[in-house]
Design goal:
It is a single chain. By secondary structure, the protein is α/β, with parallel strands linked by helices. Helix content is 40%, strand content 17%. The chain has helices at residues 8-30, 45-60, 76-88, 107-113, 125-133, 143-154, 174-182, 202-207, 262-265, 279-301; strands at residues 4-5, 35-41, 64-70, 94-97, 163-167, 191-195, 211-214, 232-235, 239-245, 252-257, 271-272. The relative contact order is 0.16. Bound molecules: NADP nicotinamide-adenine-dinucleotide phosphate. NADP nicotinamide-adenine-dinucleotide phosphate binds at residues 144, 167-170, 172-174, 195-198, 202, 215-218, 221, 236-239, 279-280, 283.
Length: 303
């Protein structure tokens, strides 16, 4: 039987609706509008399109949103000064600096400058430390891992006790996701293995997984014989493998492929996310959820 398709776009729309309602309530009850600033340095086309999508979503949800477009040659100090200004701005609850940054700017320094209270990407070491320790101190979760966890919860995938294999150990996906799923607690409590380029016999690890999560950035890496029959397969990969002409606009658009050979693996897996339309839409939605959360925390601190 072909796998159940986990439709990230639909789940993401559902969550956005919930955020919209909560945003209205916060406005009415506390006079607070969640505020997000997105900071873009230079004009890398992929970064421009990510930031545009984030701004569009923030606007749709009724947030106060600001877009800062900075020149490619802005100094590190110039960027730090701008972030410091938003750290103090009471209307802003989330600060997002679109990565990657130009080489003359130290990314770590920039991430460390963002107030941990407004770190809606959850890249700040303080927030990542809290995530590692787990428990009630966790405020933000990094957006892509949070989106993956939420997708599984809302698709009734049983995480507790499951054998989870995560392919990839990046700081934004693989590592935090492994930490989140291994915590002792609700919607976690899994046995997690993280595999990477130095792993021996990658496929045999993958084949053990009840939940296989792939964030490698290698198109079609995972083949059907790597997958346990009935497993849940979450494909995080977004790989541009070419271009096609859009029927709607007549303009070239990228052809996207995941890290999983979807057409073949869907006949083996029990549930699977497509690319596009799986994990992708969840990432922006979780950014909005973190911004709302930050605004709620602000309201609590300033009754
Ligand atoms: P990354 O920083 O390049 O990390 C890739 C990880 O995969 C590394 O740990 C690497 O191992 C491992 N890896 C690469 N090739 C492998 C192979 N052949 N076998 C085993 N492990 C391998 O990438 P990332 O930022 O985590 O992103 C991964 C993918 O997810 C990309 O396609 C990216 O576009 C996508 N992504 C999507 C979203 C979304 O919202 N949908 C968000 C973020 C990322 P080593 O550590 O040994 O090098």
């Amino acid at each position: 039987m072909p796998a159940r398709i986990i439709k990230g776009s639909e789940i993401s729309d559902q969550i956005k609706q919930e955020i919209k309602v909560e945003t209205q309530r916060l406005k009415q009850d506390c006079g607070i509008t969640p505020g997000l600033v997105t900071i873009l340095v230079g004009n890398n086309p992929a970064s421009v399109s990510y930031v545009t999508a984030k701004q569009k979503t923030a606007h749709e949800l009724g947030f106060y949103s600001v877009q800062e477009n900075l020149p490619q040659d802005i100094s590190e100090k110039g960027l730090i000064d701008l972030i410091d200004r938003y750290n103090l701005d009471q209307r802003i609850h989330g600060i997002l600096v679109q990565l990657p940054l130009p080489k003359h700017i130290d990314e770590h320094k920039i991430i460390n400058t963002i107030s941990p209270d407004k770190d809606v990407d959850c890249f700040h070491p303080l927030n990542l430390g809290k995530l590692l320790i787990g428990g009630d101190d966790v405020v933000f979760k990094p957006c892509t891992p949070a989106g993956i966890q939420e997708l599984m919860i809302r698709s009734d995938i049983n995480i507790s006790g499951a054998e989870v294999v995560v392919v990839g150990r990046s700081n934004i996906v693989g590592k935090p996701l492994a930490v989140m799923l291994m915590q002792k607690g609700k919607n976690a409590n899994a046995t997690v293995t993280v595999v990477h380029t130095a792993t021996k016999d990658l496929s045999s690890h993958c084949k053990r997984a009840d939940i296989l999560i792939v964030a490698a950035g290698v198109p079609n890496l995972v083949k059907p014989d790597w997958v346990k029959p009935g497993a849940c397969v979450i494909d995080v990969g977004v790989n541009r493998v070419g271009e096609r002409i859009s029927e709607k606009t007549g303009k070239p658009v990228p052809i996207l492929k995941g890290d999983v050979d979807f057409d073949a693996v869907k006949d083996i897996a029990g549930a699977i996310t497509p690319v596009p339309g799986g994990v992708g839409p969840m990432t922006i939605t979780m950014l909005m959820k973190n911004t709302l959360l930050s605004a709620l925390m602000h309201a609590k601190r300033n009754p």
